[in-house]
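Notebook p. 47: complex prediction with MV4.
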Amino acid sequence: MFSKILIANRGEIALRILRACREMGIQTAVVYSTADKDAAYLQMADQAICIGDAPPAESYLNIPRIISAAEIADVQAIHPGYGFLAENDHFAEVCRSCKIEFIGPPVSAMAAVGDKVACKKLAKKAKVPTVPGSEGAVDDERQALKLAAQIGYPIIIKAAAGGGGRGMRVAHNDVSLRAGIKQAQAEAENAFKDSTVYIEKYVEYGRHVEVQIIADNHGNACHLWERDCSMQRRHQKLVEESPSPVLKNSVRAALCEAAVRLIKAAGYTNAGTVEFLVDRDQSFYLLEVNARIQVEHPVTEEVTGIDLIQEQIRVAAGLPLSFKQKDVKQTGAAIECRINAEDPARNFAPSPGVIQELRVPGGPGIRWDSHVYAGYRIPPNYDSMIGKLIVHRPTRALAIATMKRALQEFHIAPIKTTIPLQLRIMEDQHFGSGDVDTGFVERVLLGK
Ligand code: MV4
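Predicted complex, structure tokens below:
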């Protein structure tokens, strides 16, 4: 096992990784930018190294500085967390060529799933359902229009290098398809330096259901069941839960088995998430694979009792997973609310500044994963998530009641948060019965 790990991230996930390391008896070094110099978790690490100024390019995205910090701290491995460099296969390669283990998948697997067109081809080979559309990239208009005539509108245009909803366009007719392809190509070139786009049938009123997977280097590839993340606004998840409230057990099993087939075909090891779109008749289609630990991993930890960060570290150290597929049970219901420092009354404008007052909920079934405290200054430079409130109860109805109570107990001032919207979700009849889709929050709760 490693004796020391570098944590190449910030905020709640840096603290989450630090806690996992401490329990495993592993020393930690954490990097930070000048904007994060007063964060209390820096005091909890064995070593904290300033790597630069607030802009991510000068610190959390700066590969030479992170590698230098790892050399100074003399670590054997780097945990990238999520965001920043977590899905950067070049960074993974640099780490390993410096004889520092990157706690994540092999470079080849990251590349195979990171390109959406390549991933879709792999899915077809592994008999994982995909949405009907172009077999690969679309480059000429005539080919796109011909295909659209075959599969019918609406059509969605996606960037091969995209993900998480970036660079997508929906077209309802030939005119908007033509324009959409041009716009999407330009946007993709600009954002990812890769203008490759592809098209698919647009599945309306779908749910976002994703499968947590993890595999070791000893032939064990497991799923840890699914999470339902349909409650989102502009591709930012607000609420995640496990199990999905709507899936039939036969569909749940088929979905999870499909996810494992795909990651086996990709030669994938360590933790990852396979995202699916589930339509009204519970047909499911692969969306994309996220080659990292995700924000919402705690809901899976709660229903399975497995510490995903510790398992990631075991796998990276060459050890087998501490469990077998047959041991992974999905018990009770877990719900997570991402608490963002944003003002719902002002179109979710960021609400940075000093947290003057803070009272966090507690009691049975509650977990609060956060790096913040009274007196903490939320820097304006990074994403606005200040913590994750997770509940785990024997049934979904009880979990909703506990989450509602916890959100009511939560007090924070003068920072504005997403809590009022999340309370509305917990009280919503459609959410209660599971009758929602990925457009629900914006269409129904925000009246867009
Ligand atoms: C889709 C889709 C409908 N049809 N693909 C959004 C994020 C990226 N992972 C893929 N996304 C979508 N792909 C087809 N063929 C609808 C979405 C989508 C969505 C998916 C998951 C969660 C929220 C979403 C919000 C809008 C659109």
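Notes: The pocket of MV4 is lined by residues 131, 156, 164-165, 200-203, 206, 208, 232, 235, 275, 277, 287-288, 438 (CB under 6 Å). The longest strand covers residues 221-233.
Next step: compare against the earlier run before touching the bench.
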